[in-house]
Design goal:
Blueprint: E1 2-9, H1 13-25, E2 31-35, E3 49-51, H2 65-79, H3 89-98, E4 102-104, E5 108-110, H4 112-129, E6 133-136, E7 140-144, E8 149-152, E9 156-164, H5 171-181, E10 185-186, E11 189-199, E12 213-216, E13 220-238, E14 244-253, E15 263-273, H6 281-295, E16 301-304, H7 305-309, E17 334-335, H8 344-360, E18 370-377, E19 382-383, E20 396-398, H9 409-425
Parallel strand pairs: 1-2, 1-9, 2-6, 9-20, 16-17
Antiparallel strand pairs: 3-5, 4-12, 7-8, 8-9, 10-19, 11-15, 11-18, 12-13, 13-14, 13-15, 16-18
Length: 432
């Protein structure tokens, strides 16, 4: 059986952050990074938008401001981001404040999807030069904590310390691993919402602030704004029962390499926290996704604001060249009525937030604006950690968005570093 001092599951920012930290501090340790995909995954593949201001991306139950800033400083020194300029922010902040809303001012960097792929290629080459072994297209199947080895679809691998950092898409996989390890966890928080797409002249704030972070009453927020050559995309998910459903997401290409398409998209999400007796927030969210797919013939739903305001479903004829004056960037979507698929309580507060947003940035609720549904974020597992380094058993650590220790690239990278520090302080990687 092959054996490594450290095995890392997931090659996204959490896994990379841990691998670079371990390789830099202990070059004598053997490190293996595994990913079930045939390419390195994680948020850096999709738009590569990074935030460098607390608390964005840092769940406050795990991170104090001092802790986050310490790790953010290290992430910033390593990634050397180019922070995007902002202007006229005070105007929008005052408008938001009058409505009981907030506009956070965040240090941001944006590479675009193409720029993110170049960054991943660079980082993987650097890890390889440091001696970190990468195995793509290999899937972890099980873990034996008593014998300290994992089983993949290709081999058995022994480890001194194991870091599981699969990201959002590994939400269900991570739950299975925690159940097999006997790690208690709570799965009761999900983000449910829509992705809004409109012409850039209807949301001109993006010319002043690339990814504006608005916080509205009732735990509603904007998330992941994309402009320039911006596109709405589908993300495929498989439920615990093997059913397929789709969530929407957004991305944009680098302004340096692509011509703008005149569109902007962003998510408006409602955070929902369930209490007993609900067993799983994930299963609830999956059921919403599958209900939308049922209504959409296997596709997400889309509806023009103009139709929504009239209480009418959108049809193919809603997407014409008259008042509705742009073509949807996600064409593989079903025109319909999202009010039949989204829970009314969630839709009401999201629509209220959109009306507030239209007062802060007039024009966003133009009749041509499209609402895509569903956009669902499954990254709120809450494991019971044994220490401050996200350890869950004697030798197993969890990090990244799938483990609920982060929400985004920079915080995921920071959580990987935090795990790595715990691994390096343990006796499990001493080579004994």
């Amino acid at each position: 059986m092959e054996r490594y001092d450290v095995v890392i599951i997931g090659s996204g920012p959490a896994g990379m952050g841990a691998a670079f930290e371990i390789a830099a501090k202990r070059s004598d340790l053997t490190v293996l990074m595994i990913d079930q995909e045939r390419f390195s995954t994680g948020g850096m593949r999709n738009d590569c938008k990074m935030n460098f201001t607390y608390p964005i991306g840092f769940p406050e139950e795990y991170w104090t401001k001092a802790q986050a800033n310490e790790y953010l400083a290290q992430v910033t020194r390593f990634l050397e981001p180019s922070i995007m300029p902002k202007s006229n922010i005070d105007i929008y902040q005052k408008r938001a404040q009058r409505l009981g809303c907030r506009l956070l001012e965040i240090k941001q960097s944006h590479l675009g999807t193409d720029g993110g792929l170049l960054l991943i290629k660079k980082l993987l080459a650097e890890l390889n030069a440091l001696g970190v072994e990468l195995s793509l297209g290999e899937t972890m199947l099980s873990v034996d904590e008593s014998q300290k080895y994992i089983q993949t679809d290709k081999r058995d691998i022994g480890y001194g310390a194991l870091l599981i950092a699969p990201g959002r898409k590994g939400f269900h996989f991570l739950q299975m691993m925690m159940q097999s390890l006997g790690v208690p966890f709570i799965d009761n928080i999900v983000d449910i919402g829509i992705r809004v797409e409109t012409r850039i002249e209807h949301y001109p704030i993006v010319r002043d602030y690339y990814d504006p972070k608005f916080y509205f009453p009732e735990k509603v927020r904007t998330f992941c704004t994309n402009s320039g050559d911006a596109h709405v995309v589908k993300e495929r998910y498989t439920s615990a029962r093997g059913d397929t459903w789709f969530s929407v997401n957004g991305h944009a290409y680098s302004a340096a390499t692509h011509e703008a398409n005149g569109l902007v998209n962003f998510a408006i999400l409602k955070t929902v926290k369930f209490t007993a007796p609900l067993a799983s927030g994930q299963i609830y969210a999956e059921n919403l996704g599958m209900q939308a797919a049922l209504m959409g013939g296997g596709k997400p739903l889309m509806q023009r604001v103009g139709d929504f305001r009239l209480g009418s479903r959108s049809k193919e004829s809603s997407f014409n060249s008259d008042l509705y004056d742009f073509v949807p960037s996600l064409k593989d979507c079903c025109p319909g009525d999202i009010s039949l698929a989204m829970p009314a309580k969630i839709l009401r507060v999201i629509w209220k937030a959109m009306k507030n947003l239209d007062t802060i940035v007039p024009g966003v609720l133009h009749p041509s604006t499209i609402m895509y549904y569903p956009e669902i974020k499954l990254y709120a597992n809450k494991p019971v950690f044994l220490d401050d380094h996200f350890r869950v058993t004697d030798s197993v650590y969890l990090a990244g968005d799938g483990a609920g220790t982060s929400r985004g690239i920079t915080a995921a990278w920071a959580s990987g570093i935090r795990c790595a520090r715990g691994i390096l302080r343990s006796s499990l990687t001493s080579g004994d």
